[in-house]
Here is the input.
Amino acid sequence: MRISASLLRLSLIGAFGFFAIAAGAQGLEDKVTIVTSYNKDMTGPFVAAFEKKHPGTKVEVQQRHTAAAVTFIQETKSNPPDIFWASAPDAFEVLKQNTLLQKYKPKAEGIATKAGSYPINDPDNFYTGFAASGYGIEYNTRYLKANDLPVPKEWDDLKKPIYFGHVGISAPSRSGTTHLTVETILQGEGWEKGWATLMEIGGNLTQVSDRSFGVPDAVNSGQYGLGIVIDFFGLSGKASGFPVEFVYPSVTAIVPANIGIIKGAQHQKAAEAFIEFLLSEEGQQILLLPKIQRLPVRLAAYDKAPAGFPNPFKNGKLGAGVHFDVDVSEKRYQLVNSLFDRVITFRLKELNGAWKAIHDSEKKLGAKASPAAKKMLADARKLASAVPISGKEASDPAVMNSFHKLKEGEKAAGRQAEFEEKWDAAALKNYGEAKSLAEKALSAK
Amino acid sequence: MADTATVPAAPRAPLAFRLGASPAQIAALALVALFLIAFLVVPIVRVIQIAFTGVDGRFSLVNFGDFFQTSLSRESFWNSVYVSAMTVVVASIIAVPLATIISRFRFRGAALIHTLGVIPLVMPPFVGAVAMQLIYGRNGSINLLLHEFFGFRIPFMEGLNGVIFVEAVHYFPFILLNLSAALSNIDSAMEESAQNLGASGFSLFRKIVFPLALPGYVAGAALVFVKVFDDLATPLLLSVTNMLAPQAYLRITSVGVSDPQGYVISVIMIVCALTTIGLSQLALRGRDFSTQQRGGGGLARRKLGKGGTWLATAFVILTLLIVLSPHIGILLLSFGTVWSFAVLPDGYTLDHYTTIAREAGPYITNTLLYCGIAGFIDVVLASIIAYVVLRTRLKGRHLVEQMAMAAIAIPGLVLGIGLLRTYYDVHLPTGESLATFWGMLVIAYAVRRLPYALVSAKAALRQLHVHLEEAAESLGAGKFTTLTKIVVPLMTGGLLAGFVTSFATAAVELSATLILVTRPPDAPISYGIYIYMQAAAGRGPGAALGVIAVLVVAVATFLSYRLAERERDLKSREGVF
Here is the structure.
């Protein structure tokens, strides 16, 4: 079957040779296939402009969500698409580690090397950053007004009792960019304190969505009022006419969005040309369109940006103040995701219950709380924000190895399921105790 | 019960064709088995083998031990069982009265119920989710109104009860379709004889209607149970993660994760689905439901009194209003400008329809083509399996049936990955990979929706007494003639129900589609909707495309019912028997 197929393909190549020559005026192949997680609003303008610039080369875009795209590339090694184009750096990292990408160092110059403390390009040149994005808070103005809620400015605002049940986020295990935000908090505040912050915000969450777009979608429609989202979701929602606004907290992660050539690509030259086009002056300007709204990586592109457009390479606040260690992040990637799901995503109801009880008791008792009650509430807070694995244990290589396929010479401390069961049990116990302590504090003399 | 309700069970003549099977039957079953092995078993095994692999890479059951030792897994398991069982109860409350009204009484608009009854199945993911939240969500239209006028909210969409509510609204058509097919197959002569013998009212129901309608009801209820057990979209929409399907999904689809638990859960879900189907068959075993007399066109339809008509109309309107509210939601969304934290959209426009008018053409024709072929394949395969299982003693027939039914519990994602893994390196003469050829989408749909068609086909054949075939054969008709002139025409209603469910549900299949589509021009409508709904500005056009999907399926359903009704009329006029 395969022999006859390749024979046939040979004859087809002969038949189409004519077109290949026609397209070859600029030395490019007649098409380039791109697998992307980006929506039409984003890919459309780039494809149109590229095809105009390189007549004879057709761009074929296959849209899939990131996980499906990675699976597709893994399963189609024998005859892969040419380019993978997506935000999540972790997806590129997975492809790189499975040797599914090929090196390409873009020729374009005048490109920033770092967004905040995060490198724009893969140090080994397997993938290239073409835009940057920052995390922030999107809020629905009608919703805030109807519920008498103040406008939040900082991450810490989201801990306030007033936002209980009004906040949404996507799970870090489902969204590479949320993962980076979580990791930024953990590295900025340290393991124990970082988790305490996450769990206290977690107490206010009404939803941990399984897809990145689920959060802006819910805020746009007013299902809940505030979402922790990446900037272009917030900005494009506003550009589409929804009553929403977007703010960057003063300390936030700026992360690159990437593109890379897939190993074994059939249209190498066209693929390279597409990447160069993305980084060119013309391509970078497209990023500024209202429906796209991503931060260019070409420094000169900001000269033509509308007033008030955030520039992470000039604005000292954006992306600064955070030291981001890529190495640490990579090693404990799956562990952090799994832990977040255990203590927050899957136990959201219990976590909500504990924090609601704490907030209610604190409000009722106010300043009049007796020392015993204060002690009980402090203990309850501690329990509701205690991470079930210490920073030291979490950075033990044998523990981290339990969360991915073992490579040669690696040893694991146990199976993922064993750790998860321990964390789940601890979370349930802590949240239950925190709740009953907070309730008891009300009657404590 | 059996001997009052059915023809006295004559000692079955040891005819050759019932003991063994004819070569043609064996060949047909072998072909079906081959199809299932090639496009279901092999791809699935290639994916879920990871569930049986230990840390050292060898075969091991340790992952299953982990599953049962994990409290979250056990909790998820019981939540899934509870939700599925309660959904069957709630769905029955909706479906049984509707089925009774359309098949027992002369009721205007019965065809409307038939058609509208299928519509809930055609709820494209993402659109349905958005629409349900806009109507029933915490800040949806109904709760905003309640809050403004009465100061409280009803948590329709929260927790396990929310899942039960949404699932029941979505899946009750399975019971409706199968039950009404069964009810309309009951011969009025049966009822008349019972009445002549003095039975009426409840005893008529208990002795005649109930046992004869039971296979259809059980078939529908089992489907609802299994489908809800396997359903992913609803729990995810309501952020209920403590159920099996979302647990499996979240673990399988995380980028770069090799966590075996996701596959363990998939295996457990397949086992549960097979057990449920097996139990439902066990419940029907030893009961002979078939009737010899045919052609009366179902139970005598009685006239409803004034009060009865009023009550029935009220019930139908109320039910349809609840059931169709997501569709009303999509409709508003597709005409609305901005709809955010408000009872209704801010304004109305036709823009979304002009946007998709330019691009939606191929999506619609692809959908009709793919799902039409898939539905046809399903009906053919299902008839063969049903016939061989119920009419022959062929060895291995139950195994083939179980293989086909197992598809119901296979997450679309797992099947998609498996097909890609198995067939990507097989090339068509054109050089295109078999896995990314559009025909593979048809096969994936056919495999995934085969259980629906099979359940309907079996229920239909079960009601058809084997004596009819024997009579035809003793009058000199060959097997083929018997099949085409007797069996198939008499099964039409059931097969049609199977085709409609297969077709309609395939039209909105997304998970396998997302893996297998490689060229947008080859994509079906579900893919188009998905793409639109991923952008803030794409909500309106996505909803408009959703409306079109619903319309397409509604028209197809309506036409096939009209066709079936005409066939039935023709038959009863000609007096086949």
Remarks:
- Chain A touches chain B through 85 residues (CB under 8 Å).
